[in-house]
Amino acid sequence: MLHGFGDTGDMWAPLAAALAKDHTIIVPDLRGMGLSSYPDTGYDKKTQAQDIARVMDKLNVQKADLVTHDIGNMVSYALAAQYPDRVTRWVIIDAPLPGIGPWDEILKSPLLWHFNFRGPDVDRLVKGRERIYLDRFWNELSANPKAIDEATRRHYAKIYARPGAMHAAFNQFAAFSQDASDNKAFASKGKLTMPILALGAEKSFGAQQAAIMREVGTNVEGGIIANSGHWIMEEQPDATVKAIRDFLEKN
Fold first, then answer.
1. Which residues does 162 contact at the CB level (< 8 Å), separation at least 6?
2. Per-residue model confidence as pLDDT tens digits over 147-162
3. pTM of the full predicted structure?
4. Could you give the count of Cα atoms lying within 13 Å of 18 in the half-sphere of its Cβ?
5. What architecture (CATH level 2) is domain 9-250?
């Protein structure tokens, strides 16, 4: 299970609890996020996919199902493209892939201004104001901001206030141009063949999520989480867990 920006691997707690009885659950924090280290480089998703492959090696896991959200989607595409035999099934949730499908149009959305929030002063502008910065995403990208409760907001704001955490987060977005180039190269070699469930949130990417994945996969099933914005595990955990369980059990 791979998370994205604005949360950590902790976002998967409801799903992990539901699957732990009959699955081995692996929930790493991505490079430069959560409780992982904050290196200066390596934020392109091709490199981060290699991080995940090494985690699997360390745990003696040859193959795994993937469940991913947000930037975790991007890392997982690079993982599946580089190591297709190691991914058995993939549930991808509510975020695009750089360079794939309507990426250039997606970049024009005013809601995604943070994709290009960079420069010499960004760390200084956000330092000590991490909660203010993160609240904007939780509020603007959700269908119901109250679904991201105060305890959740405090938890993630504290983690993102760790020294170096926001700088590393900005580097995730700064790598998108390289990610787009890498993804186009991956896609040119052929589509993924493992079963893929592409879940879009009704108030976010919706049916577009499956359309994006059909650009890179041959066996794609679409689904929509109703009454949800981008933060699906916080906004609609029960419906999301059910959709994922149903897919994993039937494939």
1. none
2. 999 999 999 999 999 9
3. 0.97
4. 17
5. 3-Layer(aba) Sandwich (3.40)
